[in-house]
Amino acid sequence: MIRKASLLLVGALMGAAAVTTLTQIPFRVSDAANAAASDTYRQLNLFGDVFERVRSDYVEMPDDAQLIESAINGMLTSLDPHSSYMSPKSFRDMQVQTRGEFGGLGIEVTMEDGLVKVVSPIDDTPAYKAGVLAGDLITHIDGEQVQGLTLNEAVEKMRGPVKTDIIVTIRREGAGEPLDITITRDIIRIRSVRWREEGDVGYVRITQFNEQTFDGLKKGIEETANNIGEDNIKGFVIDLRNNPGGLLDQAIAVSDAFLERGEIVSTRGRNSDETQRYNARSGDLTEGKPVIILVNGGSASASEIVAGALQDHRRATILGTRSFGKGSVQTIIPLGANGAIRLTTARYYTPSGVSIQAKGIAPDIESLQDLPDELKGRAETKGEAGLRGHLEAEGEEGEKEQSGSQAYVPADPAEDTQLKLALDLLRGEQVNSAFPPTGDSASAPN
C-alpha cells in the first residue's frame, strides 16, 4: 500500500543494541542521547572510510553516484521487502503508474532471495497473456542473471521500447526445469475496474487501486444495476483476486462505497501520536444489496483493507483463499532532484483492531479452484510471510503466520469454481452459514 504524496500506498528487527548496566550509577537521558549520537557519527565515518578506499583502490574506476545509490538502496532494502530507493526516473515511472498508464510487461514484483518474485500478473497485459503466474521467480532477463541486481535495476531491464521482445527465465515451484518465456513489451494502460452482468448478479473486477478505481467502481455498479434492473438484481460480486494493491485513499473510497458508518482502517506508526483513523460516510452505492468479495493468495495491501473492512462490519462475505498478508504502509518521500525513497512507516489495522501483517485475511468461506494437471502443486504463493526480512506478525496470533495460499484464477469464467459458488449463494441455489453475514459489526479497536 502506498500513501499518496505524504500519504501516497507491498520487519526485521532493526539493529537494536542491548545495553546491560551492572551498577546503580544514574544514567541521564542526555548522556544516552550523546552516546547514541557519538556512535552514529563513528559509523558514518566508517562508511566514509570504506567509500574512499573503494574509490582509490578498486581495480576499475567506480561510478561515485552509483556507489552512493547502491549504499542507500542497500540500507533501505535491509529494513523490509517494501522499502527502497527510487532514482529520479523510477520515481517518475511510479507517478505515471499510479495515474493508470505506464510502459512495461504488466507484472507486480518484489525481491526474494535475490531474485525477482512475481506478486501478480496484471490482467490483459503482455505478461498475463504470456502465462506468467503469481509466485514465479525470475532468475534471468535476456540471459543475464538477476542475482546481484537491485529490484529497481531488474525492473529497469524489463522495461524498453514498445513492441520489442524480452525473454524472462522463470523458476516455478513444481516445474522440473526453468521456463523461458518470451514477452513483447507494450504500453500498459491499466483499466483498473471491469464489469459485466452475470445473469441477475453484477460482477465487478478490480485489478489494482489507482487514481481511477473508485470512479470505475461507481460506474460499474451503476451500469450493471441499470442493465439488470433494480427489482431483479440479486447482489454483487466484487473480485479482488490477484489484486496487488495501490493507493490508500482509493482503498478507503472503495470500502466507503458499501458502508454507511464506522471505521474503515487505521494506520499506526512507531509513535502513538502518528495513529490515523479513516471513517465511512453515509451512502451505500449498492443500496444494501448482498455483496460477496473474492480474494486469494495474490490479493494484497489495499485489497486486504477493503476485504477486512467489509468483513469486520459484516457488510460482505469474503470467499476464496487466504489473502497475501501485506499489512504495512509505505510513504513516498521525495528527495528533490535525487528521486525519492519508499519507506515503510506504519502498519494498518482492520476496524476490529487486527493487523493482518504476514497473516492475511481468512475468508469466511474457503473455496479452492480446480487446477489443471500442469499447475497442480504450483499455483500457490507463500505470501508476505514468505518474503525474506518481512515485518513480523503481531498480536495474539503473532506466531501463526500464513504458510501459503492458492492464487490461481482460470481464464474461462465457466471453469471458475469460486465465482460459481459466489453466484450460487447470491441466487439462493447454495446455502452457507457465512452468507449472508450476521452478527454485530466490528467493535471499536483498542
Which features characterize this protein?
single chain, 446 residues, alpha+beta, Pdz3 Domain, 2-enoyl-CoA Hydratase, Chain A, domain 1, seven-stranded mixed sheet, six-stranded antiparallel sheet, 23 strands, 26% helix, Tail-specific_protease, S41 family peptidase
Short overview:
The protein has 446 residues and is of the alpha+beta class.
What does this molecule look like?
- With 446 residues, the chain is an alpha+beta fold.
- Among the domains are: 88 residues, Roll (Pdz3 Domain), CATH 2.30.42; 217 residues, 2-enoyl-CoA Hydratase, Chain A, domain 1, CATH 3.90.226.
- 26% of the residues lie in helices and 24% in strands.
- Strands 1, 2, 3, 15, 16, 19 and 20 form a seven-stranded mixed sheet that branches.
- A hairpin with a 2-residue loop joins strand 1 and strand 2.
- It is globular.
- It starts with a strand and ends in a 19-residue tail after the last helix.
How are the elements arranged and paired?
Elements: E1 2-4, E2 7-8, H1 29-57, H2 64-77, E3 84-86, H3 88-99, E4 101-104, E5 107-112, E6 115-121, H4 126-130, E7 137-141, E8 144-145, H5 151-158, E9 165-171, E10 179-184, E11 186-189, E12 193-198, E13 201-206, H6 213-228, E14 235-239, H7 248-256, E15 263-268, E16 276-279, E17 291-295, H8 302-312, E18 317-320, E19 328-334, E20 340-349, E21 365-366, E22 380-381, E23 405-406, H9 417-427
Parallel strand pairs: 1-19, 13-14, 14-17, 17-18, 18-21
Antiparallel strand pairs: 1-2, 3-20, 4-11, 5-6, 6-7, 7-8, 7-9, 9-10, 12-13, 15-16, 15-20, 19-20, 22-23
Helix pairs in contact: 7-8
Domain PDZ: 91-173
Signal peptide: 1-20
Pfam family, one: CtpB_N-like
